[in-house]
Amino acid sequence: MKQLLAFVRKEFYHVFRDRKTLLILFGMPVVQIILFGFALNSEVKNIGITILDNAHDVQSEQIIAKINSSPYFKVRQPALNYKDIEHRFKEGGIKCALLFPVNFGSALYKTGGAQVQIIADASDPNTATTLTNYLTAIIGNYQQELNPAAKPAYQIIPEVRMLYNEEQNGSLNFIPGVIALIFMIVSTALTSVAVVREKELGTMEILLVSPFRPIMVLIAKAVPYLVLSLINFIIILLLSVYLLDVQIKGSIILIFAESILFIITCLSLGLLISNITTSQQTAMLVSMMGMMLPTMLLTGFMFPLENMPKVFQIISYILPSKYYYSIIKSVMLKGLGFSYVWKETLVLAGMAAGLLTLALKNFKIRLS
Amino acid sequence: MSSVRVKNIIKTYGEVKAVDNVSFEVQKGELFGLIGPDGAGKTSIFRILTTLLLADSGTATVDGYDVVKDYQAIRNRVGYMPGRFSLYQDLTVKENLTFFATVFGTSIEENYALIKDIYEQIRPFNNRRAGKLSGGMKQKLALCCALIHKPAILFLDEPTTGVDVVSRKEFWDMLNQLKKQGITIVVSTPYMDEAMLCDRIALIQNGSIMSINTPDHIVQSFPKPLFAAKADNIYRLLQDLRADTEVESCYAFGEYLHLTLRVKDGNEHTISAIAAKYNPGGFEVKRIAPAIEDCFIELMGNE
Q: Which DSSP string do the residues of A241-265 spell out, in sequence order?
């Protein structure tokens, strides 16, 4: 036990004396959260729109005022002519444009029907669809205000409710994903490098010729990163709650317990990688390319898994992060209890046990 | 009783035979040296004995335990210092020592007497990171770490490579002190002058042992009179003597050439007569006692 403690303390020395590791360890989660929270946001908010108002009448002005007062749009400098719109799109300051024809107001009153044109930048189709929907809704809303009395005889009004995320806060969806990603990097990559470094520096040679047991080496390597990952987890949670307004609905104890389970899975994976590679670069490459990319792409927090080809969907089943992501989403965002996530928990526990056994089996008690 | 017993060990890496049918024994309390150039197979032998490598064939025991079957027992009772500096560079002197003491289930205080003489020298640098120590200091620290658990046998793989002359001398003094405490020491070195400081040595080349004996015996068994010669143009003299049919071998050793003759009973005059054919300026010759290096070259020639 004393040996193990000494070993763990030594690991902490390594971490705290290596600026690069420290930077990855604590800088990355913060950067990732802020990046995903603010920069890489799929939310529609304050989107630039330009307006070519050939009508300049009361009606068109009223619509423009409505658009400007919605949180989704910010009306930029009006366009001078049709050509100018294209130019503005190319400049990139706007994502959609609204065109009023010359006799918009009079057409509306005299003929009972007027047209407007909406142009959206569809290079990002999802955003474009959302934008046109919002614009259409705003115009439809105005139309109702014009003649409140003239309701159609039979009307179905859909009342939409965005459950679990009423404000459509985009952070909610990716926070569990980012947590999974960060655990993958910190736990898997750093642990794998930690063991391989001993091999590369030759210290493994001395450790092997000592009474120290392989299982102790693995535990001693894993414990510091488990602690550090948990600290990281707390930082991420605090950032999410106070910076990104994420509400934690479920049991915090359950969230922590599941996170520890996932960290152990990641650590086991890291130990396994470290036992089968011989250089820090290879270990880093395997854990980054082999683990981080699939986690990002195939866990479902960036791209919906359901739309992917069958092959990728099958691959996603062997990724621990997929299960963790779904657990955290259920517990943290939906407030569900253990009875809803026990299946995923069981899969994760099985993976952890399997990976740890493999890591132990692959621990080389001799050189080469 | 033998501390180390090696029998017909063979180890190959692909096509290369690193250790070729090596056998030797090291007695308890002995300071045993493996002497040979880089790539002779010394490190492979050390790794096989410290249970880090498996031999292709042959058997070896360390302190009575089999290196394959009882590897765990051996790991508990040997001290090993690899050829490359293998301590934690980002840990301080004190932290390294404490760590290794704890890993071996002991403490610095418990075996302080054993490392005292060595540790006192690096103690002023207790809080310096190991990576920032000089070469000699590093070796002293590594030796301390290998000794801290009072091993029965100490394996030192090229402990003095890359260390200055003064530190090397100190290091060997320390080894002699340790020997007095009853620790068996197996050491390897490419420096032939260090061979004389061992109780017994094995001269090793290309994976096989050419000779095992005490250094004195090896020197005495040099088969022929050995001469040292020099001239103003020593390179020219080397060329000429090597080409001469009466000269058996001729090698440059510092400012002298060491040479033997084909005839068994030659003396300084014989050499002078041979050299005179080439008219060297400032020619000198004297008979000398062979050193280990001469023996090594002689044995290499026989192989």
A: HHHS-----S-HHHHHHHHHHHHHH
Domain boundaries, chain A: 2-40+169-362, 47-146
B152 close to B77: Cβ distance less than 8 angstroms: yes
Instruction: Enter the DSSP assignment of A292.
Output: I
Q: B237 CA to chain A: closest CA distance, Å?
A: 46
Complex ipTM: 0.84
Interface test with B, best of A197, A209, A367 (most B CBs within 10 A): A209
- Kindly state the greatest CA–CA separation across chain B: 71
Pick among 3.40.1710.10, 3.60.150.10, 1.10.8.60, 3.30.70.20: CATH of A47-146: 3.40.1710.10
Nearest to A24 by CA among A138, A260, A185, A179: A185
Over chain B (303 residues), the average pLDDT of each successive run of 10 is: 91 91 93 92 93 93 93 92 89 94 89 88 92 89 91 92 86 90 93 91 92 92 89 89 88 89 85 87 89 89 76
Please state, rounded to an integer, the average pLDDT across all residues of chain B: 90
Burial of B31 (0-12, 13-18, 19+ CB in 10 A): buried
Q: Which whole-number Å values give the CA distances from A102 to A60, A135, A255, B40, in the listed order?
A: 10, 20, 59, 95
Stated pTM of the model: 0.78
Residue B181 identity: Q
Pairwise CA distance, residues A27 & A232, whole Å = 10
| Interchain CB distance below 8 Å, A366 and B103 | no
